[in-house]
Amino acid sequence: MSVPLLAARGLTRIYASGQERVVGVREATLSFAAGELAVLAGPSGSGKTTLLNLLGLLDRPDAGRLELLGEDVSTLDDRGRARLRREKLGFVFQSHQLVPVLSAEENVALALWIRGLPEVDCRTRARAALASVGLSGMEGRRPDAMSGGQRQRVAVARAIVGEPALVLADEPTASLDSETAARLLDLFDALHAEKGIAFLFSSHDPRIVERVPRRIRLVDGLIVSDETPAGGAS
Ligand SMILES: Nc1ncnc2c1ncn2[C@@H]1O[C@H](COP(=O)(O)OP(=O)(O)OP(=O)(O)O)[C@@H](O)[C@H]1O
Ligand SMILES: [Mg+2]
Asked: Which helix (H) or strand (E) element contains residue 7?
């Protein structure tokens, strides 16, 4: 049997703000296979970002266990977690977080520079990643000279350039109109099919959620359903 990409058991994150304790996520248990495509759905405040941050090793749980490719990440120190993040994961954030003074190509290449790869390799691979998201010819543009949908595709290119096993995307379509959002999802589908990258993203837009084969629904920090409709398995 193959090792799951991600295996979470009883992941719990409680935020303490002053005297108040707010449940971010309670006892989340889920397993995620290599090459899967799934969405975390649920209303605002239901815990989508909290769970993505835990699964992406950006935050630590208060309880529970998380394995990434069979490795128990709770025993890793910060450096070990950062290494796994760099080598196995890619991230797309809602506010894309591109560096404004760098070109599209440099923004993407940066994800490889920080791994210590030679600059010429970084740039070659960055151009290939931009081509795979349909941005050939835009390598030299700065983010402020691109549309919202183009910027989001630069962010996707940056997330996939290091050939991660899994890309985590928090509301990647939130600032996009329906048509651009649908095109971004087409792009995720294509990258998933062609490169075998697994995608897990969050969204509360039903038009987006309906398109994705596996839907994990959260309410008040609890996973209330985890469905792969018949015929919709990836
Ligand atoms: N840093 C924090 N400190 C205290 N409470 C927090 C913090 N971050 C999130 N929360 C609380 O945890 C719960 C889950 O928040 P989370 O951001 O995960 O929800 P979400 O589903 O991503 O919502 P949205 O759709 O609005 O992005 C909410 O009640 C929220 O108020
Ligand atoms: Mg959120």
From this structure: strand 6-17
Longest dimension (CA), the chain: 54
Q: How many separate helices (H) and strands (E) can be counted in the chain?
A: 7, 10
H or E, element range at 28: strand 20-32
Structural domain boundaries in the chain:
33-59+78-227
- pLDDT 10s digits, 153-209: 999 999 999 989 999 999 988 877 888 888 888 888 888 898 899 999 999 888 888
* Mean pLDDT, rounded, of the chain: 91
Q: DSSP secondary-structure letter at 101?
A: T
Helix (H, G, I), strand (E, B) or coil at 181: helix
Ligand 1 mutation pick, 46, 95, 170, 201, max ligand atoms within 8 A of CB? 46
Which three-class secondary structure state does DSSP give residue 90? strand
Residue count (the chain): 234
HSE, CB side, 13 Å, CA atoms: give it for residue 160: 23
Pocket probe mutation, ligand 1, options 23, 48, 58, 62, max atoms within 8 Å of Cβ: 48
Of 114, 65, 106, 108, whose CA–CA distance to 85 is shortest? 114
**Is the domain defined by 33-59+78-227 classed in CATH 3.40.50.620?**
no
